[in-house]
Design a protein that fits this description.
Number of helices: 10
Order of helices and strands: EEHEHHEEHEEHEHEHHHH
Largest sheet: 6 strands, mixed
Strand order of the largest sheet: 1-2-3-4-6-9
Radius of gyration: 19 Å
Shape: globular
Bound molecules: coenzyme A
Distance between the termini: 29 Å
Structural class: alpha/beta
Number of strands: 9
Helix content: 40-55%
Strand content: 15-25%
């Protein structure tokens, strides 16, 4: 597939997906949404790829939805508007439920939908000085599609403050509210991302995707409602090929076959 809005690099078990529209700070339009969804979807079935790193080319990670594209939607029918919004919703969901863990490498700015990509990813790490913000209300709209992922990460209290003011905030604050996992000097960003990747590569590939599914299934539900599910997951996974290999490797004081 020829990509106009993205660049994809493969390096052993890691796929690096770069938003590549630096002139508009990687703001996403319909084509970028389509390309990113397709790339992430296709990577699901590539066994050799075990971790995805999502970053942005140029001075910023992502300035959110392309405001010219959104403005032009006034000329679309309601059905067309719903279709475009659904495609974007599908993109955030594809990031969120990707069976390959996604590390977001964030620098410069992550605003609006850019913050949505951060929230939907698994381990977002940002450079100090990165600007974050749910700026939608300042543009007369709302952070609708990204809200489930953001509220899931930062909770209602911080969401009320940040969604309602639309104020910008820096990486240290983003760590405090739980939007990202770490804020590091920009010159250390790649090394920190690589360390996160190295930790992920120690985990069994199937176990990682099962752990993601577990969080999705169990989060915010009553213990009584999820207990049957959790019992079934561990009963199945401890006798799986990976589970048996992981435990045997530990007991035999060696690395499991998936560890580099
Ligand atoms: N949609 C469309 N174009 C955008 C954009 C967006 N979301 N964000 C930035 N751009 C464009 C600018 O219009 C500008 O275009 P120009 O060169 O034709 O004037 C270009 O990208 C560079 O932007 P600029 O503001 O000059 O760059 P910067 O590096 O000083 O600042 C940002 C980068 C991301 C902090 C700033 O552009 C910004 O605040 N963008 C708005 C983001 C936003 O509110 N997104 C929410 C969408 S829901």
């Amino acid at each position: 597939m020829r990509l106009e809005r993205l660049e994809v690099e493969f390096q052993g078990p890691v796929a690096r997906v770069w938003l590549n529209r630096p002139d508009v700070r990687n703001a996403f339009d319909g084509l970028m949404v389509t390309e990113l969804r397709k790339v992430l979807f296709d990577l699901r079935t590539v066994d050799a790829v075990r971790v995805v790193v999502l970053g942005g080319r140029g001075p910023a990670f992502c300035a959110g939805a392309d405001l010219e594209w959104m403005q032009a939607m006034a000329g679309f029918t309601r059905e067309e508007n719903l279709r475009e919004a659904q495609a974007l919703a599908d993109l955030f969901f594809t990031v969120y439920e990707s069976p390959k863990p996604i590390v977001a490498r964030v620098h410069g700015a992550a605003l609006g939908g850019g913050c949505g990509l951060v929230a939907a990813s698994d381990i977002p790490v940002a450079a100090l000085g990165t600007h974050f913000g749910f700026t939608e209300v300042r543009l007369g709209i709302v952070p609708a599609l990204i809200s489930p992922y953001v509220i899931g990460k930062i909770g209602e209290s911080a969401a009320r403050e940040l969604f309602l003011t639309g104020e910008r905030f820096e990486a240290v604050r983003a760590v405090e509210v739980g939007l990202i996992r770490a804020a590091v000097p920009e010159e250390d960003l790649d090394a920190v991302v690589d360390r996160r990747v190295a930790e992920l590569l120690k985990a069994g590939p199937r176990a990682v995707s099962e752990a993601k599914a577990l969080i999705r299934e169990v989060g915010w539900r009553r213990v009584e409602d999820v207990q049957r599910y959790t019992v079934e997951r561990i009963a199945e996974l401890r006798i799986s090929t990976e589970g048996q290999e992981g435990m045997r490797a530990f007991l035999e004081k060696r690395k499991p076959y998936w560890e580099p």
